[in-house]
Amino acid sequence: MKVLFLCTGNACRSQMAEGWVRHLGGDNLQVCSAGIKAHGKNPRAIAVMQEAGVDISHQESIQLTDGMLEWADLVVTVCGHADERCPLLPAGTRKEHWPLGDPAKAAGSEEEIMGVFRASRDDIRNRVTDLIQRYT
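RESULT FIELD:
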């Protein structure tokens, strides 16, 4: 099974989802993530994943290509913008939408912002765990 996580900028949510699949999915899943545009990786996303024992620092922030859509068996949009802008998928490609809030928009103290990132990380882990159980 080949899973593509699609987000607006491939900076936070899709990066975390890719990291969780790499960490939890074993050999039964191949994964990549992309954005409608590539905004670079968010250092807070890297930090909270590292806290959970998952290193996403080596992943790249990349822009969606037609080849990625051809490659994927399942496309998971992780924000409303990506869901709305998701191109027409090839026949047989499944699609799911996860309406995740953007932790990069969190405000407050650094600890409050990091709390939002941690909550997002944990929500994504739960969703990835469910996805793995359904597709492997």
